[in-house]
Amino acid sequence: MKLSLHEIANARAGDKGNRLNIALVCRDRAHYAAVASQITPSRVAQAFVPRRPTKVVRYDLPKLAAFNFVLDDVLEGGVNSSLGLDGHGKSLSFLLLNLTVDIADTKMRPHAAE
Q1: What does the H/E/C string look like for the chain?
Q2: Mind listing the pLDDT tens digit for each residue in 65-87?
């Protein structure tokens, strides 16, 4: 089944100069392997191609079922230089969360707390 990352994961972005940092955390550990195999640095670079990243590095955190993506040169010079409304890159995590993944299992936990 094909799902958007936002259906199975959370993301949080931050910045350091012109470098964007996005933490991606799977809500269910069972989805970690599928995300790891499909959300590669090159796929993330492709999603951010309009922002022209010069480098994308993925750090795997398997014990947390999470990843840390670091993208260089995507913040238009950084928070102090950019005229963009999102100088810190906070909303850029939604670009990542819109990527899709194929998940083998069909049992999905609802995202809303019950």
Answers
A1: CEEEHHHCEEEEEEEECCEEEEEEEECCHHHHHHHHHHCCHHHHHHHCHHHCCCEEEEEEEHHHCEEEEEEECCCCCCCCCCCCCCCCCHHHHHHHHCCEEECCCCCCCCCCCC
A2: 999 999 998 876 656 555 454 54
> Could you read off the pLDDT of 36-52 as tens digits, one per residue?
999 999 999 999 998 89
Q: Which pLDDT band, with edges at 50, 70 and 90, does 10 fall under? A: very high
Is 114 contained in some domain?
A: no
CATH code for the domain of 67: 3.30.70
∠41-33-52 over CA atoms, to 5°? Answer: 15
Residue 112 lies in a domain: no
Tally of domains within the chain: 1
